[in-house]
Design a protein that fits this description.
Blueprint (H helix, E strand, L loop, with lengths): L4 H8 L5 H17 L4 H8 L3 H10 L5 H12 L5 H12 L4 H19 L2 H13 L3 E5 L4 H14 L3 E4 L4 H7 L8 E5 L6 H13 L2 E6 L12 E4 L3 E3 L2 E3 L1 H17 L4 H14 L7
Helix pairs in contact: 2-3, 3-4, 7-12, 8-12, 9-12
């Protein structure tokens, strides 16, 4: 698992100038606020110049200040309570138009996901899922809709796909009872990360199943348990996270897997269309 930014600051503290130490001290004490500050604003609160903030980011090994701020954001989103999120969101949005802010954030998350994505890991995930004896999909809390969306389409071309969403702790293991080597567990979790999902992944590792993780960043606690981690950016908007980029990743997985699935999709959907027409599943327009 990658070192978080606070650990990186502590490790590099001996090399900091007097001004850089002011920035480090401010971030350590106020990281929940600093994660959403511009370089100008952080400089103001730390009592240094903007250029010093930019040099501080470079000293920590980041390409620029935006990358450092992103690392801060990745670190804290899984730690903030809903009440803290609402307070931070008010500071971020201020009087800005909410619709414009949310749509702009979603666009930016997809752009960053495309920029950082590991295509080789994506191909490995597709191959592992297609070749699996059985496919288990787990997503709890806000991630449950991503799991349900994926499961809906997997069930159209796989007969060995199962889903685990909201249920008590003990039922998670009951539903994973038959999980074994040769199976794949697709674990989906975004801040705030679900303990039940993490426990399920630990069980899957113990029985030798392959684990594909879909999460927001390399610092996510589910990455270290995964054989194949897939990261799609998400961002905090008030008490919720935007999951547009993760949904786009799920879309890509479904399409890629459908092309390699050992079924005649044309025949499968042709039969489905006949059934839908016969039983009036969809309104005719």
């Amino acid at each position: 698992m990658e070192m978080d930014i606070l650990s990186a600051i502590e490790a590099a503290s001996g090399k900091f100038s007097k001004s850089q130490k002011k920035i480090a001290q401010y971030i350590i004490k106020n990281y929940d606020k600093a994660a959403f500050m511009t370089a100008v604003r952080l400089a103001h609160f730390a009592g240094v110049s903007e250029s010093t903030v930019v040099r501080f980011a470079a000293e920590l090994g980041y390409e620029g200040y935006p990358q450092m701020r992103r690392a801060l954001s990745d670190m804290i989103r899984g730690k903030l309570t809903s009440v803290q999120r609402i307070k931070v969101a008010k500071d971020i949005m201020g009087s800005r138009d909410i619709l414009t802010h949310v749509l702009s954030t979603d666009i930016e998350q997809i752009r960053q996901t495309m920029e950082d994505f590991d295509s080789a890991e994506f191909s490995r995930a597709v191959d592992a899922i297609v070749q699996a004896k059985n496919i288990y999909i787990i997503g709890m809390r806000s991630s449950s809709f991503l799991a349900s969306f994926m499961s809906f389409y997997f069930n159209l071309f796989f007969s060995n796909s199962r889903i685990i969403t909201e249920c008590p702790d003990n039922e998670v293991f009951e539903k994973l009872l038959m999980l074994s080597e040769g199976d794949v567990l697709i674990a989906i979790s975004f801040p705030r990360y679900s303990r039940r999902t993490i426990k399920a992944m630990q069980y899957a590792r113990d029985v030798g199943a392959t684990i594909v993780a879909i999460t927001d960043a390399r610092l996510s606690p589910i990455v270290e348990l995964a054989d194949i981690p897939l990261c799609a950016r998400s961002d905090m908007i008030s008490f919720l996270d935007t999951l547009v980029a993760p949904l786009s990743l799920v879309n890509a997985l479904v399409i890629a897997i459908s092309e390699k699935a050992p079924v005649d999709l044309y025949a499968r959907f042709e039969r489905l269309e006949e059934i839908w027409d016969e039983y009036g599943v969809y309104e005719q327009i």
